[in-house]
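pinging the channel bc i need a second pair of eyes. not urgent but kinda urgent?? the chain im working w is below, pasted from the shared doc
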Amino acid sequence: MDAKRIQQLRPLLDKYLLQFNECFARSESAERLHNYVSGQLSDLPRKSIEPMADAANLPPRNLQQFLSLHHWDEGQMRDILQQIVAREHAHRLSVGILDETGFSKKGVKTPGVQRQWCGRAGKTDNCTITVHLGYAAGDFHCLLDGELFLPESWSSDRARCDQAGIPDTMAHRPKWRIGLELIERAVANGIRFEWMTCDEGYSQSPEFLFALDDRGQRYVVEIPKIFHGWLVKPSVLTKRRRFGPRTDRKFPRLKVKNPPLSTVENLLSYSPVLREIPWEKFHIKDTTKGAMVWQAKAVPFYLRRDELPTWPHWLIVARNIDDPDEVKYFLSNAPDGTPLEVLLHVAFSRWHVERCFEDEKSELGLGHFEVRNYRSLKRHLILTAVSHLFLAKVHQDWRGEKTRPDGVPTSHGQFRSGPIVVADGPSTRTSADSRGANHHGTTTTIRPRFTQPYQNTTTAAA
C-alpha cells in the first residue's frame, strides 16, 4: 500500500462511520465512536481502553463511560451493520456460520466467566464464551452478531448477575438456542443465507436442526459420530386395527419389526447401503501446505422426530486423503439433485469465521476488553464487528475483484460458466423415492472447481 492510499483511509472511515450516527443521542458519543474504532484500527500493541484513550489524547474514563454509561443504542448499531451487509454484499452462495470463541480471564467479575472449555487455549480454562454469527460470500466475510453464553452457575446466582449488569430476563440457554436468535435477528434485517453451517457442538441437538427445517433454511452441518438415524426409511402404521387386544397405542407409529436407530459411525462401517457407494475425490481448497483433497460420499438419511421418521435428509461422509483416519460426518436438508461439490463447499466454509476471530483478536483487540458489566461487553463486541466490516470492505474494494465468483453452482444445482475439472471415480448419488426405497442415479461427471475465497487476512490491505 502506498502513501496515497493510506491517506485515503481517514475520509473513507469518516464516511463509513456516518452511517451509525443515528445510534447516538449526543455528538460527544458519536465522537467517541470515532476514537474507539480508530484505536482498534491503529498499530497499538494492545487495544484495551487505556492505550486507545492515550492515543486519542483522552482520559481513559471517557472511553470507559462510552462503553458503560453513555446513552446510545448498540442494538440499532448492530441492525445498521447487518443492513449494510444485506444491501452491499448479497451473494447467490452466501453462507451463515455459527461458532463460538473464548476469552481467557482472571478473577470472577467478568460476565459469564468460569472454568469451561476454551477453544483458543485448547483446554479447560477460566474464560468467558461468546456465540457469534458469521457471514461468508465469495472472498468477503465478516461477523454479524455476537452474544454472551451465560453458564448455569451464573444464571442461578441472580445476585452475581445483578453485579455484572446482566438483565433479569437473561438466563442460561444452550448455545444452539442463542444461535437461532442470532439468525432470526439477521434475517429480520434483510440478510439472506443461502446456506447455514456449524460444528457438531450445535447440530448434536436435533431440535436445532428441526428449527432450521421449519424455517426453510438450507444447511450443511457437521454432526458427531454418535448421531443416530436410518438409511432405510422405517415402516409406519397409520391405521388402527378394528379388532385386537391393544387399543391404547398411538397412531401413526413405527412398526415393531423395523431396523433400530444406528450411529453414523456404525453405518459407515457396517451398512451395505453406504459401503457400496464408491468414494469420490474432491478438491476442497488450496492452503499454504498445498491442495486440500478429501474423499466423500452421500446417501439419504432419516432422522427421528416425534417418534417418527422425517423426510430424507443427506448424510455426507468425508475422509482426508492424507489421513484416512480423519473422518467427518455432515447432515444436510438440501433438495435432491444438489451437487455434492456444493454440499462440501458449504461444509468446509467454517474457516471464514475462524479467520474473522483471528483477525479481530490479533488486529482489533477483540479479546483485550477489561470490562466487568454486560452492557460494556456487548458494546465491545458490536464495535469490533463495525471495525472489522470496514476492513473487509476496504480489502475487497481495493483488491478490485468481483463479488460473485464464476463457476460456482447454486443450491439448485444450476451451473455458471467457469473453469472445469473432472472428479476421480464414478459420479453417483443415492436418492430416495416417495416410498423410502433407495436407488442410484447418475450426475454429471464434469465438475466445476470452486473459485476459492482469498484466504489472507482482511487486515493486511489496510
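so Confidence is low (pLDDT under 50) at residues 401-462. and Residues 374-399 form the longest helix (26 residues). — does that match what u expected or am i reading it wrong
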